[in-house]
Amino acid sequence: MNQQTNRACLFIRVSTDKQDYQRQILELNEFCRQKNYEVTETIAAKITGTKTFQEREDLQQLFKSASSENFDKVVVSEISRIGRNAKDIRNTIDYLHSKKIAVVFRNLGGLESLDDRGNESFVTNIIIAIYSELAQEEKRILSERIKSGLVNARHKGKQIGRPEGKQDDETLLKRYSRLAADLRKGLSLSQCQKLHDVSRNTAIKVKRILS
User: Fold this and answer.
1) 91-119 confidence digits (pLDDT tens)
2) 93 and 165: one domain?
3) Are 7 and 51 found together in one domain?
């Protein structure tokens, strides 16, 4: 394999401003060192993976750099760093493949989405599809559990809804409108944190505004 095929872009995402992506950067750089990959670009963002492509500046940057042929591999810690919707993950990988760029998954032992000749592998595609669907199914199951918990809370007579008489922080509530809506419905901090992929501190701040 020539040196050019070892040019790598680190693609890193954390969900909120309160999380730090330095650990991912260090781990992926060490992974690339062991693999003899030359890191030519690092794209790191603090944004939830449930947002659309239009809302994902990190994906837009990735696609732009891919078109400029700045690298031959995109290295991620796990598939959920690309996104949390199976279709969106597949679309992103398909675009990279159209540029002959392989995606390398660190948590899968360095599994590459393209072989040495730049072709898709049937087995690799199956593995990627399974992990994409598992990530999406995990979110669906969590959503169902939250809905069930909400029903139980109502049956127990717990207050559902937003207390009145407090002034909103409009900027924060607008940014986390869905989180605020679920908190108003009576969902717990832990449930909202997982469902909306935010830090606990963010959930607490929004809840305080609503209280």
Assistant:
1) 999 999 999 999 999 999 999 999 988 89
2) no
3) yes
